[in-house]
Amino acid sequence: MNYFMPTRLFTGNGCIDQHKDLLKALGSTCLVVTDKIAAKASGALDDVWAALDSCGIKAVHWDGVTENPPVASCIEAGRLGAENQVQFVLGIGGGSSLDAAKAISVFAANPELDEAGFYAMAWDNSPLPIVLVGTTAGTGSEVTKVSVLTDVARRKHSIHDDRLYANLAFGDSRHTHTCPPAVTLSCGVDVIAHATESYFSRKADDISRAFAVRAIRMAVGPLEEAAKGAELTARQREQLYDASILGGLAINTTGTCFPHNVGYYLTENYHVPHGFASAVFLPAMLQCVRAYDSSYTDAFCDEIGMSDEAFTQVIEACLPAFDIHMSADEIEAALPRWENNGSVKNTRANVSLDDIRSVLTSQFVR
Q: What's the angle, vertex CA 142, arms to CA 140 and CA 145, rounded to 5?
């Protein structure tokens, strides 16, 4: 077994206020990284301002995070942090804001670094300390060493490095209550995608599988209610948030499989939210693995307490109708990006380009 996660994590109502004194050890000035609306609307930004003020920590606020954040914007924010000599970076939001905060911590410590140097991890200085405050139940970025950004060619790429772990992470599920229904569903199926792909990763072990199974079992109930249009209770919101953390802990060891990377294509080219874009390929992954090793898939179904069909029904109930029409030529042009791709090879099946062609064709060629 293999496990490492140095982030100090706190969850529960009021966790930021309860543990705010730990911020003092990170410095007297920080860069607060958010989007323009959601961090404030969730109440998390106000809670952070109160904690920083109580600790006497000065803050510079950068609210330029967008969905699928580009590296260029992280460079801009990092240079702002360097100019103001901030000592740590504090990100508030969903996966985009948290992933951006990790990258910004690198650029704030290395303000002359460009995109190529970032992806090459040619960092002369270690990233600034990182604090992450989650406001969605989805990515689990609070507890991973992963940052997913959009490069200059408008393609999503992930970077994995132990220096990107947060020093502190706070998860008060009350901050997820303002998520619109579509965001709740997209983030929620991202939890399922993380856990399922982790389970079917070639790097899976007993620890990662335990996290994955628990995440799925916790997430399914609230997601089924959300898919029906029900307003989730505070307890269901907390359950879904805790599941997202468990999913993050699972992929932290194993990484993801082909649904995530193929899903990037839908996000880049058809603006499909990340969670939906990944989840749409989960049934196909189950079929691939069942053909490769049916006993392993049987074990997965036994542990989550659902058949392939029931599991697929939960996912499909959460997905919107996709108005995506691909041509055979488009698919052929896209296929080279998945040749020798790490996420594809990480899948516990011999997934070929022919398999990916078949999946995309069956889903999107009319």
A: 90
Domain final residue, candidates 140, 157, 176? 176
What is the C-alpha separation between 266 and 273, in angstroms, rounded?
8
Block means of pLDDT (10 residues each) for the chain, 366 residues, are 93 98 98 97 98 98 97 98 98 98 98 97 97 96 97 93 98 97 97 98 97 98 97 97 98 96 97 97 96 96 97 97 95 97 96 96 93
Reported as type and span, the H/E element at residue 214 is: helix 206-227
Which of 138, 139, 140, 144 lies closest to 163 in space, CA to CA?
Answer: 144
Q: Could you tell me if residue 83 is inside a domain? A: yes
For residues 195 and 167, membership in a common domain is answered with no
Q: What is the CATH number of the domain that holds 253?
A: 1.20.1090.10
Report yes or no on 219 lying in a domain. yes
DSSP string, 241-284: HHHHHHHHHHHHHH---HHHHHHHHHHHHH---HHHHHHTTHHH
Residue 2 included in any domain: no
Q: What are the tokens at 266?
A: 């839908």
Name the pTM for this structure.
0.96
Distance CA 26, CA 293 (A): 48
Q: For residue 251, which of 304, 208, 190 has the smallest C-alpha distance? A: 208
The boundaries of the domain holding residue 42 are 8-176
